[in-house]
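Can't paste images in this forum, so I'm doing it all in text. The chain is below; anyone willing to post the predicted C-alpha cells underneath?
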Amino acid sequence: MRIAIDANMLLAIANEKIDVFGQIRDEFGKTAEIIIPRQVIDELKILSKRNKKNENAVKIAMQEIEKNDARIREVNAKNADEALIALAREGTAVATNDSALKKEVKKLNAGIIFTRKGRFLAFSSMNLLF
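Text version of the structure:
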C-alpha cells in the first residue's frame, strides 16, 4: 500500500492537530509506504515564507515526515497536484483536502484520504487498493 500526502494534509498536522501519520499507520499498518512528492516539499517551502503560522506548521510537517520515515520521491510533473495525480495513476492513494484534486483522483479509481469532522481521517475507495 502506497500513500502520497498533499501539502494541505501535512499542514493539518499542526494547524488542525491531526495525527495524519498515526491515523494512516493505524488504518494500514507499518508496512504502508508513505510518499511525499518533491513538488509538495517545494510547495511547503513557499508556504513557509508567507507568514509565521505557515512557517511553524511547515517545520512541524517536516519533522513528522522525517520521524515517520516518509519517502520523498522525485516525480516528473510541473507541480504538486500533477505529481499526486501521476502517483494516483500508478495506484497510489492520495491524502488531500483539495476538492478539485480529490475529484481527479476519484476519476482514476485511486484511494482518497481526507479529513472528516476536522480531526479524523476518512478513507474513500480504499477497498480498490487491497
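Residues 52-67 form the longest helix (16 residues). The beta strands are 2-5, 33-37, 71-73, 93-95, 112-116, 120-124.
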